[in-house]
Amino acid sequence: MNFWRRTLAIATKEVRQLRRDRFTAGMIVGLPVIQLMLFGYAINTDVRHLRAGVADEANTQLSRRLVDDAEASQVIDIVTRVDTPRALEELLRDGKIAVGIAIPRDFERRLALRDRAPAQLLIDGSDPAVSMAARGLANFPIAVRALSADPVSKSSFEPRAFYNPERRSAVQIVPALIGVILTMTMVLFTATAIVRERERGNLELLINTPVRTTELMLGKILPFVAIGMVQTTLILGIGRFVFDVPIVGNLFELYVAALVFVASALSLGLLFSTLVSTQMQAFQLTFMTFLPQILMSGFMFPFDGMPRPAQIFAEIMPLTHFVRLVRGLILRGASLADVKGELWPLMLFFAVTVTIAIKRFRKRLD
Amino acid sequence: MSTGLAIAARGLTRRFGANTAVDGLTLEIPRAQIYGFLGPNGSGKTTTIRMLCGLLAPSAGDALVLGLEVPREAAALRERIGYMTQKFSLYEDLSVEENLDFLAEVYALPRGEVKSRIAEVCEEYRLAKLRGRLAGTLSGGQKQRLALAGAVIHRPDLLFLDEPTSAVDPESRRDFWESLFRLVDGGTTILVSTHYMDEAERCHALAILDRGVLVAGGAPRALMDALAGYVVEIEGEQLRAGRAVIEALPFVVSVAQLGTRLRVLSDIPEPASAIQKALDAANVVARAHAASPSLEDVFVSATRGREVAA
User: Fold this and answer.
1) Which of A77, A247, B93, B216 has a Cα-to-Cα distance from A133 of 20 to 30 A?
2) Which residues of A fall within a CB distance of 8 Å from B150?
3) Within a 13 Å sphere around the CA of B118, how many CA atoms are in the beta-carbon half?
4) In terms of C-beta density within 10 A (0-12 exposed, 13-18 middle, 19 or more buried), how is residue A185 classed?
5) Any chain B CB within 8 A of the CB of A4?
6) Residues A25 and A17: beta-carbon distance below 8 Å
7) Mean local confidence (pLDDT), B269-288
């Protein structure tokens, strides 16, 4: 059929162009690998070894014990000791330390009276992860408990983390990273694809040939679907063998989910390419939507923590659904049927954007 | 296929808002001819071609192109026409062969024919040695040959060329026109838009467009002959003074300087003696004599000198 022949001709041409464009071709493999290495190693929500300073004005056996215990938790490394809390504040402000422990002269009396907190923890609140970890430190039942006649009762709950018992960040991040990397590459590649034809004048040639809009769009998308699958495989492989991410779920179902997600990302890119007139604008539009997706999809910050309007907005974004899908499929061993509630919004997103893209593209020819 | 009309348009009109780009154009273009659209930028050449290709719907009027009604039957028409854009529009990051292969597939040439047809056009347009070269690295003339090869790879009955030789040297231009005449011999009808007189002069027939209106039409020779007797050349020392005198004469349409001569177009026949009289009366030393009209004279006369070809 001529429909498929023309679609395939576009796809073949696209692949040939891509092969010549060494930079873009390199990005296809390089981008996931580099991002994965960076994010996998660097993003670590399990914060340890914060630089800390101590101002121990009491300097008793008990106060020294408190500091030792805090350091033994590995959350902080004592890098400096100063005389006054004021000096600690300065270090904190200059970014030399992230945590300061200030122990007042009347430390032991406060302990005995139990009317006020015996010591003060100064925390650099400008970094949310750091401040969270340091706050955890404040709840440590340290030295105080050991020496008190009336030990502070242990917490009534013993938390048990399912699916990621060691609470390793890589396990949380790598699966969702498939979505982030696919969003970045897929949207960007297609957003620039049609604009590039327009910018270079090729569209003037195409509109005089029998090529139809659907054929052009489909032919442009097809190679990237394959590329998306390659990237998915790459990330899964590195995740499994470098970061030791357990892949509990069915691999085939995972690829089905990735395919639907890739389609939705590509259709978004196509829509963008009908909205802009230069490749630069396509870049800008892509990054404008990329950042909110990363921040609001639940990839970095908990979805439940966002206010309601933000949640509604996030529900529109494909990445939100894919992050849930992929965490369910890879980590919780859910089946596609279990998480189909996240699959159909992606399909809907694809159908709507691709329809608008084709409609808009037709309009711009006249 | 060599008889009858390739294009028949009646009252073709296209408006963009308040502006009328093409106004009531009626054309009859016979098959197997090179037909030229001559006109300055903004005269409606491109809009007309776009309507005839079915890319743009006319606001009024209708056109039959290769017996198909546009824009209704544009899809069927597209398989039978070739289009060469003014600016090179093939893929610069594909090789000559890959570009031709792409077009052969897009036009759905019979599969067994793709290879032989590519070889054929490469031979015809001297691209055989360049097949592996990236299109972006070709010279202007080579690019033009590739563009033409691409536009005719599916053997179209009708070929549109939008200012085809604006980016090539005179040698390549000659060469290019030789190729066009060979295509016409094979039965192809060619429509060329141009604002170059030498290019227009090679066409079998011309339509001169001015602000969307057809102001003159016919074979270049016939158009020039019709103007015989209306063109005068002035030779002499004081051309600048002479020019002022001549421009003041009521029957003079335009005066243009060509090196050491002035070329005068009048709207009365045989004006040489009247001009000579005026020059003598003003004490300007110059001789006026009748000259044979050029296509530029035809163009200026047709557009009444209100606009100058770019």
Assistant:
1) A247
2) 205
3) 22
4) buried
5) no
6) no
7) 88
Bigger pLDDT: A117 vs B244: B244
Q: Which of residues 14-53 of A touch B (CB under 8 A)?
A: 16-17, 20-21
Choose, out of B78, B106, B146, the residue to mutate when testing the contact with A (most A CBs < 10 Å): B106
| Cα(A53)–Cα(B111) distance, integer angstroms | 77
- For residue A8, report the phi and psi dihedrals to the nearest 5 degrees: -65, -35
Closest-CA residue to B135 (of B174, B102, B106): B102
Distance CA A336, CA B275 (A): 94
**Is A182 in contact with A262 (CB distance < 8 Å)?**
yes
pLDDT at position B219, please?
A: 92
- Hey, is the C-beta of A211 within 8 angstroms of any chain B C-beta? yes
Q: Is A183 exposed, middle or buried (0-12, 13-18, 19+ CB in 10 A)?
A: buried
CB contacts < 8 Å between A and B, how many?
Answer: 68
Local structure of A103: helix, strand or coil:
strand
SS3 B302: helix
Q: From A202, which residue of chain B is nearest by alpha-carbon distance?
A: B89
Rounded distance between C-alpha atoms, residue B42 and residue B23, angstroms: 13
Q: Which among A208, A226, A218, A193 is positioned nearest to A1, based on CA atoms?
A: A218
A288 CB-near residues (< 8 Å, 6+ apart)? none
Q: What is the DSSP letter of B164?
A: T
Distance, CA of A67 to CA of A50 (rounded, Å): 14
d(CA B286, nearest CA chain A) in Å: 52
The C-alpha atoms of residue A258 and residue A234 are separated, in whole angstroms, by 13
User: Which B residues in the span 28-57 are in contact with A, Cβ-Cβ below 8 Å?
Assistant: 53, 55-57
**DSSP H stretches of helix in chain A:** 2-20, 22-42, 61-72, 85-93, 107-113, 128-138, 144-147, 169-199, 202-206, 213-241, 251-275, 279-296, 308-316, 318-326, 340-365
Do you find a cis peptide bond into A85, omega within 30 degrees of 0? no
CA distance B82 to B149: 10
The count of C-alpha atoms lying within 13 angstroms of the C-alpha of B62, restricted to the half-sphere facing its C-beta, is: 6
Chain A positions in Cβ-Cβ contact with residue B100 (cut-off 8 Å): none
A313-356 per-position pLDDT tens digit: 889 999 999 998 988 888 888 888 888 888 999 999 999 998 99
- A279 touches A195 (CB < 8 A): yes
Assess contact for B203 and B29: CB atoms under 8 A.
no
What is the Cα–Cα distance from A195 to A360, expressed in whole angstroms? 13
Read off the pLDDT of each residue in B29-36 and give the average, rounded to a whole number. Answer: 94
Return d(Cα B302, Cα B173) in angstroms, integer: 26
pLDDT digits (tens, 9 = 90+) for A167-180: 666 777 788 888 98
Spatial contact of B127 and B96, defined as CB atoms under 8 Å apart: yes
The residue among B61, B66, B67 whose CA lies nearest residue B44 is B61
**ipTM of the complex as predicted:** 0.82
Residue among B57, B93, B105 minimizing CB distance to A17:
B93
pLDDT-derived band of residue A140, with 50, 70 and 90 as boundaries?
Answer: low
- Exposure class string for A28-43: b at 16+ Cβ within 10 A, else e: beebbeebbeebbeee
| Dist. CA B162–CA B150, nearest whole Å | 14
Q: Does A362 touch chain B (CB under 8 A)?
A: no
Task: Give the neighbor-by-neighbor strand order of the sheet with B231-236.
Answer: B252-258, B261-266, B231-236, B286-290
